[in-house]
């Protein structure tokens, strides 16, 4: 018997019509013989409605009570979906996080799952029932309701799949898979049939908002096969696993980009040991997260130091840096919040030289000046002026031939 | 230390403004030194919104899933109220029925409370917290969410007051107490300061929709002092206890009326043993509830048999009765759904003769023909034509001098 965990997000179940459509889909899969556990989010709009109510009751509400409030969103959906399934002669039973029971730590609004009791679920599956579980929520040891934070339903689904040793965890969403890049920027972008957890993590953290990073980490840790697919259309979606099942591994899987960053540079800092941490400490103390960091040797025993922060933190970080610069006797501080980070991602990169050179040439051919470079084992990120964003993404997508399947590309060459 | 259980219904907390007003009221009571446990319903409109969603998912939903769905209504309110209290520097903690834990039987949508665990609540009260509990809901032994049925929040409040040995259970509502009759019919109707459980039960079951019957029965069984008062205005409300604390017991406490009934009569039935149950069985089998029943001896060893049902069941009951009549060889069947039942209620009646005579004279003085009469220890009910409803209520209200306090009435006489 194949056991599949389905997960449907807020858009997929945003109305009664959508809930009924999802019930049709599940009932059909059940008829095909799968054992099915379904994880659902709150109906889209519901969480924002509840947040607005909370804000009017108390602009600074206790996290414990926020969790009591927000967890009702998924509870409504599990009941409605179980009802809709029953109407299709598909026996179903709903469970809140507490009922499963999904034990978490006590960090309200961003709790972490500690353990899952799969007894009830196994019993229901044995009796031929579809089990419908509220995503995003659990209980702590004292029985307090907790939530896992936004996007936590993905994590619930993966954690349940791991606990139940499910054959696959299927994340149904409003896109039909993971693409080589954003199709709104590159119309030739192609859906990937396969990719690895590592690649997905880079894609997710770099701005491709398909899956929550935490759920991919979780899937990777417990080796849960993860499939991203559309809840609106038929299709195989994208299967994400540890071992790439492709015979011909593609060099590059995709191009990600992120417009939310800003760049800051401090020039002519005395090049002394500890200078980097000295500069970053002042930023970190203000709870500003730093992404890329680059240090170059300058002239006259000084150094130039550049880093990127979220664009919302730009003004604050610039003020901090200017203060620090005068302390350190640096020559100059400058910054730019009109930048974009573009990344070339692929596990194939590990075993192929020359990817960086190919990427840089593609950008240079279009006259795009690279402002920063940062690399890891499976990615190359460059910072360029924001106005070049689409051009850079298209140039890289085309340079690596991403619009065609790798096998075809090999045959053609 | 005085421990008070407050209960606020849907209208009292129908908006964020109302929730904030209720929080003000509770914070003030807390400052006065009371220990407070608050029971709340769903915000008005919420239950109907959820019912509409359920209907679209499945016109015949499973009671278990209905309870999962509907119980979210109160869960939203407890969180919002706890937040609003915290904003007023009044520490508070919310509990769902399952968290308290309120153990019920497994009769979904109309479960009965079996036991209440007061450990958590006592601990919170000791730490100076207001405890906010979701009304209307509990869990069964298997951890399934149950609900007590409409109006169940009153029952939760009384049951909690009993379990915690509270000094009083205060039911806040949109009226400022129990009146001698409906003030919309008799402008001189007077709020009662005191009444007994027995009187309240008669008032509630006869159409004065202030309190749920079950909660009054519960209060009576566990001797919980119950106070009905306004959540919108200040005032002492009406205190309901077992022993009437009034020195001068009034003869009559109030006049109730019910426009929801219809009357059916079968005439000229052979007067044989078992004939009454024979006739009523056919009605009961169709799940039609019967209220008043009257049998009179007729002519020629036949009998006339009259009973009342809910007006919605009138057509169905009439058809059943006509079929039965021909079986039994009865002379005639007739009915009337333009009737009203008017009741005179008061514990004082027990020790005073002549109340019935006074009531009948008051009606007769107004030319109102009495169609049926039924009496109990503390009430006299009459059925009259619907058109006389207001006139009958006013005549009785005035005949028993209900517009003035009994003490004054005694002094005047």
N→C terminal distance of chain A = 43 Å
The shape of chain A is globular
Averaged pLDDT of chain A: 90
Query: Could you tell me which chain pair has the largest interface and how many residues each side has?
Result: A-B, 39 and 39 residues
- The computed structural class of chain A is alpha/beta
> Helical amount among residues of chain A, as a percent range?
25-40%
- Per CATH, the superfamily of the domain at 3-174 in chain A is Acetylglutamate kinase-like
Strand order of the largest sheet of chain A: 3-6-2-1-9-11-12-10
Strand content of chain A: 25-35%
The count of strands of chain A amounts to: 20
- Do you know the CATH architecture of the domain at 3-174 in chain A? 3-Layer(aba) Sandwich
Radius of gyration of chain A: 24 Å
Just give the CATH class of the domain at 3-174 in chain A: Alpha Beta
Q: What is the number of helical segments of chain A per DSSP (H or I, 4+ residues)?
A: 13
Quaternary structure classification: homodimer
Sheet having the most strands of chain A? 8 strands, mixed
């Amino acid at each position: 018997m194949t056991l599949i965990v389905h997960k449907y997000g807020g858009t997929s179940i945003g109305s009664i019509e959508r809930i009924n459509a999802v019930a049709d889909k599940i009932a059909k899969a059940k008829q095909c013989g799968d054992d099915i556990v379904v994880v659902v989010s709150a109906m889209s709009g519901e969480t924002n409605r509840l947040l607005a109510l909370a804000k009017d009751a108390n602009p600074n509400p206790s996290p414990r009570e926020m969790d009591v409030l927000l967890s009702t969103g998924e509870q409504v959906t599990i009941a409605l979906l179980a009802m809709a399934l029953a109407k299709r002669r598909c026996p179903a039973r709903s469970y809140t996080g507490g009922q499963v029971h999904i034990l978490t730590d006590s960090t309200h609004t961003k709790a972490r799952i500690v353990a899952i009791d799969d007894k009830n679920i196994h019993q229901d599956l044995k009796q031929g029932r579809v089990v419908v579980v509220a995503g995003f929520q659990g209980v702590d040891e004292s029985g307090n309701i907790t939530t896992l934070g936004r996007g936590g339903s993905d994590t619930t689904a993966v954690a349940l799949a791991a606990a139940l040793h499910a054959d696959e965890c299927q994340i149904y969403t409003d896109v039909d898979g993971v693409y080589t890049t954003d199709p709104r920027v590159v119309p030739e972008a192609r859906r990937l049939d396969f990719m690895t957890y590592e690649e997905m993590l880079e894609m997710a953290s770099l701005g491709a908002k398909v899956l929550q990073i935490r759920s991919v980490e979780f899937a990777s840790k417990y080796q849960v096969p993860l499939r991203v697919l559309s809840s609106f259309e038929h299709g195989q979606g994208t299967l994400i696993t540890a071992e790439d099942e492709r015979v011909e591994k593609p060099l590059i899987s995709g191009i990600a980009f992120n417009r939310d960053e800003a760049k800051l540079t401090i020039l002519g800092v005395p090049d002394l040991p500890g200078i980097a941490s000295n500069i970053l400490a002042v930023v970190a103390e203000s709870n500003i997260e730093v992404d890329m960091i680059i240090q170059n040797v300058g002239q006259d025993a000084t150094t130039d130091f550049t880093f990127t922060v979220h664009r919302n933190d730009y003004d604050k970080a610039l003020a901090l840096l200017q203060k620090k610069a005068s302390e350190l006797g640096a020559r100059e501080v400058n910054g730019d919040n009109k930048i974009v980070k573009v990344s070339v991602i692929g596990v194939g990169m590990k075993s192929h030289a020359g990817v960086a050179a190919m990427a840089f040439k593609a950008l240079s051919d279009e006259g795009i000046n690279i402002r920063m470079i940062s690399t890891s084992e499976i990615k190359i990120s460059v910072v360029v002026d924001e106005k070049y964003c689409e051009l850079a993404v298209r140039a890289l997508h085309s340079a690596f031939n991403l619009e065609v399947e790798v096998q075809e590309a090999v045959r053609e060459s």
